[in-house]
Structures are given as structure tokens and as C-alpha cells.
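Quick start: what a row looks like.
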Amino acid sequence: MIDRRAMLGATVALTAAPMALHAAGKAKPFNPAFPKGFLWGTATAAHQVEGNNTSSDVWFLEHQKPTVYAEPSGDAANSFLLWEQDLDLVKSLGLNTYRFSLEWARIEPEQGLFSIAMLDHYKAMIEGCHARGITPVVTFNHFTTPRWFAALGGWHGDDAPALFARYCDRAARHLAGGIAYATTLNEPNLSGKLGELLPGDLLGADKEMVEAAAKALGVALYQPGNPLYTPDGARTQRHLLEGHRLGRAAIKAVRSDLPVGVSLAMLDEQAAPGLPKGAVSLRDAKREHFYGEWLRLAKTDCDFLGIQNYERSVWTDKGKLPNPSGAVTNTMGAEVYPPSLAGVARYAHAQTNLPIMVTEHGVGSEHDEIRANLIPAALTELKKAMDDGVPVIGYCHWSLIDNYEWVFGYRIRFGLCELDRATFKRTPKPSAGVLGRIARANSV
């Protein structure tokens, strides 16, 4: 059992240090009020909440033998049918923004076959947002791709960027009129690099799984949209970069005034203090490895940048430091560090000079008090960054409800609301009230 008093004490300690530094620098008094029109929201992804996404690359892998997936997604949160309840929930929490994704596998279940019915489904969701005074932020592709696309090699295939752009064009012609902000891809910067970040040795098992899938389909390579294993990570990255360029151009060709960006997964990379003379922290090398190409692309091919932050990493010249003693940790054992979001916002803006939208931020933990403490602490630091000139246009918390967390199944809980998987009932947690009060007041 976690000692809640110890947890609260650790959280206060984490946030006190930056505040003390702020005071030591005689900064101007902290203003807790956010700008008028700030977007307060929450986020989901289609495969993780909709359920029964049977034409997708991941559904096929969930049912392979062997598989790295702890369990199949199944009905998920049944949000494909219960999307109106989800929108009502967003509104009831006091939020004014909902980030969700289109499911490419539903819209184009077979190559070149576009479903009007599925496009109409997502159009109804967009219209449902507007009817409730909710700003729709729409991701055109959140990891999962159609099974046929994966069977062509996924983003490893030479035709991948053009195929993605064709899908973006078709979806935009049906939907772009009602979208407020769009992102092309979700965390593409980690594709082929996830094996470096996830715990344990998942890479070998993932290779066995996708090889079994390729054999079952009689193809040379089956590569899902968000692979751990890829035979050529650099090639996959080149095609994703080009996919964003072409996809954004296709969307903008339909509606030139629609702001289109990309969402990047970013840790708050920090240089360890007190290194020996002449020693150089690995921080900058890690930043270049994980974000460099995408941040340079964003400068010329994005209207805004979505950032998604959950952790920090502190680097010496030899490697990453372990968690500090007494740190609050998430289910996976990583440190929960509230200032990391502001650190990423500052760095991302400095590198791109773009408006920033927090498209994901949260914590995977069954202990909701960690989430309830994290939200105001992180937003306080984010507001300080805004006061220092970082243009942040919105904050979307991950996630609206406890959902399917990919290879980990349903074990890791990120939701502001608890999900009863038998009845699909959504029950707000105390953390939902914390975020809702901040959003209603537009002040932390």
C-alpha cells in the first residue's frame, strides 16, 4: 500500500524547487490566469476506446501466436457506439476541447475502398462536438493503420507516404470543414525507436510476432503503424517525415485555413548537474536522436506543434540517472515529475518558434491522487513558461477514460474516468474534478 502522506510530500518537494528558483531570480509575481480562449480538453485514440477495430493492423497482431499483446482490445470502451456519452462526459467535466482520432482502417478497410458510412460517423462526432460547444482537435492517424497497409510493409514501404496522403485527402474532403485543429500523425518520432524506451526485452518478441503475421498473410514484411521491430528504422522515419509533408499538404489543399501540425512524444531531457570537468552530458545527443529531424520539419511544415509529455530523463556523460530517492512513480516505475511538461514546451518552442498545443499529458497509475496532484503542479509550471513567452494554445489531458494501452492491455490506467468493462459505465475520478475546476476558472 502506498503511503499517501509520503506521496503528497514528495510531490510538494518536486514542485517546490522550481518555485524557489523562480523566487531567487526575483521573477515577476505568478499570474495563475490562462489567456481567454485557452483550450481545456482531454484526449482519446480510436483503437484504444472504440472497440472491434477488426480491419486494423494491431487487431490482427493481438490475435497472433505468438503475440506481445497482454490481451486483445475487444470491445475496448465501446466508444464507437457510445461516442455521444463521451462528448457529454467531456462537457460535464467543464472542458471545452476533445482530441480524438479518425480510424484509417475503418475509413479505408481495403486499399482504395473508402467507406462513406465511416466518414459520416466521424462527421457526426465533429458536429456533436460543435453542438456541445466543444472544440474538435482531430488526429488523422493515431498509430493504427489498415491491415492491408501493414501487409504492404507499412511505413517501410516506398508507397506509404503517397497512400497516407490519398487517405488524408479523402478524409479531409469529407470532414475538414468542421475540424478546429488537425494533426497528421501521433508520435511518429518514436517509430522504430520504442524498443529503446519500453521496459524489458520486447523487441525480440515483437519481431517473432510480426514475422508470424507476415507468414500468415503470405507477405514479405508485416509492419504495423507503430512498430517496435523494424528492419530499417531510418527508412521508416524517412517515409513518416514525407508522409507528414504530403498528408498536411493534402489537408491544406482542401482547407487552407485549417491549422495542421504533428504531435511528438517528448521527454524533458535534462543535463545532470555536477559532471566532471570536460564531461559532456548525453542530453543533446538524445534530443537530436529522438526529436531533431521532426523539430526541423515542424519549422517549415507545421502551423503548430503538438507535444506529448509524461516523464523527464536526466543524462550524465555515460547514461541516464536513476529516479531520485523518494520519487513518486507511475505504474511502470518511472518518476512523476510535474515540471517536465513546461520543460518540453520551452524547448519545443525554442526549436521551432511555433505555437504549442499539449496534445497529451498525464500519468499511468491506479492511484488517482498522483494524477490529482500532478495536474495543478504541472499546469502551474506550464503557465510560468507561458508568462515567459511560450505560446501555448491548449492542454489536452490523456486520457478521458481508462483504455486499452497497447501491449500492456488494460492494466495501466491513464483515465480521468474509470471504466467498467462489463457495463461500459464511465465514472469520473477525483482528478477529473481537479482539472474541471481549473478549466472552468481558466486559472490554476
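That is the whole record. Confidence is low (pLDDT under 50) at residues 1-24. DSSP finds 14 helices and twelve strands in the chain.
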